[in-house]
Amino acid sequence: MGELMQAVVKSAAEAGAELVTRSIPRPGADEVLVRVKATSICGTDVHIYGWNSWAAGRIRDLPQILGHEFAGEVVEVGSEVRRIKVGDFISAETHIPCRACKQCLTGQMHICNNLKILGVDCDGCFAEYAVVPEIVAWKNDPSVAPELAAVQEPLGNAVYCTLVEPVVGKSVLIFGDGPTGLFAAAVAHVAGASKTFLVGRHPVRMEIARKVGATQTLDDNRDDIEGTLLSETDGLGVDVVLDMAGTQRAIDLGFKMVRKGGRFSAFGVAGGRVSIDLNDGIVFKGVTVYGINGRLMFDTWFEVRNLLASGRLDISPIITHKLPLSEFAEGFELMVRRPKVSGKVVLIP
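Now predict its structure.
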């Protein structure tokens, strides 16, 4: 192992990033150094790359290495590391907990009160090497392809959102045809949903949704969504709504379409304030609402691993592009191009 590496760095408070040469970081006492085999672009990375208002208000220190979804081989461990060993093939939970606040001490590390996020609050993994705390390192089965292991973090979002309650024999409505919505369609299918509907806007992505198990896709710009769903559910509405979009329209239609006594899982992040019909959408219908933030540590990770190991969950159609790390700019362009032409974009250092 040499002393230098290539990394995609956000150097200035403006759109874009650059490929730079950096020293390979050294792990601290409770950290591990990983040779990155695959890393994938997330919507959060797109926000930081484009430097929108959220990124400008959230990112504190520049320059900083981008990225938080990855898989790789451990090449060095700190003096206090016990669970992870050199040679382990790992991914990482990107929510880094403090392990001291009330949430951490009561089994809610994923929403730690002093939470730090890899690639947001510290250097990330769009690089040949990355350092992560042992507490968030997750051992992978060596037989799992690196590109699949790299997307377990966003897949975990979909698993948590979809399976926070069972969906066996239930109708599921997903708003949003981004990668997490596509993952949710695949998860709902293998978890036994009777019908899975996905509302989207991009033909390429809706075709992917059908490939991974969506019973029916509905074009948000053209189809009679309300009429179709009522017809397919005997006028009752769907049992479960998964909001992966966070738009006012998805919220309005989701609470309208969920049946009395149904469940609404809110994962999509709104661009600003939104309104909810509290009376008719939730209270009078007796709807259960879950706020979904990240993944349960580490319940969700075990579920993800077992679903992938079963061979029944095939997420490969969602990974549409694999590019060298040096072509990161093309990867970001694929992510923002409209109409959407990509699912998940993976970078290979």
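The domain at 4-151+315-348 is CATH 3.90.180.10 (Quinone Oxidoreductase; Chain A, domain 1).
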